[in-house]
Amino acid sequence: MKEKIKVLVAKPGLDGHERGARVLTLGLRGEGLDVVYTGLRRTPEEIVERAIKEEVDVIACSILSGAHKELLPRVVDLAKKKGLEKVLIMAGGNIPNEDIPFLEEKGIDVVFDQGSTIKEIANWIRENVKS
Amino acid sequence: MFSEEELKEIEKKRREWEEGTLKKTLQRFKAAESPNTYYSPLDVKEFDFLKDVGFPGDYPYTAGKYASQAPGAGPAVGGGHSLSGGGLVRAGRYSGYGTAADTAEYYSTMISYGRAPGLNLALDLPTQCGYDSDAPEARGEVGKTGVAIDTFRDWEILYEPFRGIAEIDKINSAWTINPESNTLVAMYVALAKKRGVPLDKLRCTPQNDNLKEYVSRGTQIWPVAHQMRLTRDTIVWAAKEMPHLHPVSVCGHHPREAGATRAQVLGFSLSSAIAYVQLGLDAGLDIDAIGPLMSFNDLSGTMEMLKEVAVLRAARRMWARIMKERFGAKDQRSLIYRDVGGCTMGHDNCVKQRPLNNVMRATIGGVAEALAGYIPSCYPPYDEALGLGHSMEAIQLEQDAARIIMYEARLCDVLDPLAGSYYVEYLTDKYEKEAFAIIDQIDKMGGMAAAVDSGWVSRELAKAAYEKQMAIENGETTIVGLNKFTGEHELDISINRVVPDPYDPEKRARAEEEQLANLAKVKKERDNEKVQASLKRLEEIARDESANTIPGLVECVEAYATIGEMSSIFTKVFGRYEEPEL
Fold it and tell me: Predicted ipTM?
């Protein structure tokens, strides 16, 4: 078993708002997690491939462009198709409250919206990653 | 301002006050130290009114870039409709969504409401990143953050409402686009040619501040050096062909929203501006041919209003000093920090929790702007954090707040009313000094392009953003209703977002499908041989570093080549930018 939980912070789609992803990357590292950041503008295919290559426990998608309803279910479906059932998929960014049930129904494990703290996110990850 | 003798006397009195009046008060309240500070002439010992402030519209422009702000203020009556901008005529409102026809319909409506014609165009991400609507990367993004432009056909439709009294030689166009700036300039040139409008009458501003894209906004496509060449092409084209084309609008806004401190926002954005000026000089242009072309967007901001007033004053003074002292500019128009202002509260201070509080926050931002010499803008509308687009009600509140600042509170009656305030002058000096230290550091790295390319600027921003987040989490920074003053008994307030949006959500939902059909139709109808020939010539031009890409792009645009096709030619020649690891 790996010593540290490993997280892939991902930016799906063409959205360039990177602050949240950067803060989360540095913040979760500060919490003792192993974190890889995809960088900007990744397709769901690239994200899932990277998740497989890095053997991550969590994929944390940050999106603020309004394309979350299109892109996030694709990440979930691809991850399932590639056998990543155990990998948790989280979402954050600018996601309207009314879209959260839709995303959860599509298999997103949790949505951390604005105002969430690094601590809350790190704790959720520690509690939910299946060892 | 004060003689040495006077300063000595003030210093003596200050000590007496600290040891007497202040100490007594603290003892009474059992406080170890005072929660407040107090400023005096001791904090601005070197202050020299004529050298440091001067009169509005005169060097060093601290008091204002123009002698009077009135010409932009517009009539205080009329324009009753919230979107007509009555009383607050500023740059066009940032707008655009769906297909070109959807956005054109929006503009027609605005023109019929009496809104001063002119546009500030929002583009969707595929267009900004050089993808056609039918590219796999564009799925789910077409028409979302702005209008989709694939070919010149879309551009023609978009500008259709701008005829007659709003003909393109009478309006001002701003386009929020960066790597693809030259493509849109080429489309405007093609449109002017088609309508018989002389190029020297076109007034337009592509954002084109690409250095900040790599570090804070994220629509970069090509490696930095190649991108800088494309920006050089815009600057040279403006200087030679289109005197009212502002080739870049330097945006401190984005680094700030990405986490920059006040000193960093000034240091990074002015270093970028220096790099763009240098491009023009290296291409053989005179400094006073480049200076008047330079323009600036806003610097975003924070809730600490007095500090933001100082940042805006420092920006004006620093740019004037850079242009005069560093570059030797002589023309007054070269020295002006030609900015639009606005958004001083910063989008990042707009929170989802208790969203109506954002009205107060934006109003404080508007007060800061009024005190710094701008027509106030209480942007963004309070529902900014709730998803894409703003409700009409939120926009009306935003605009009315600005009108109240201007016409009821009359905060715009006096220019630079905080000039001479010991505290504000101290802050203005402080930010100028700190920002010049960052500019020096960047100069030593070889300039802003090198500092960006090395990943240094991105890392600095990531660190600053992380520190801001930590300050919120440990309670050092207060955000009412988010990390403080919260509890179990949160009121359940329903926000009225059903007020008809200026953008029809149904149209936005079907935009992708429609745009795919529009694009397919253009591809079918155009002369494909002509397209291929124009793309081939564009490739030859791209390979010749000394050539200007804009005429080649005009030819492609006129043949109805797509943005993706033109962009792919540059990618073939330049390669793609690789983001450094964080």
Answer: 0.93
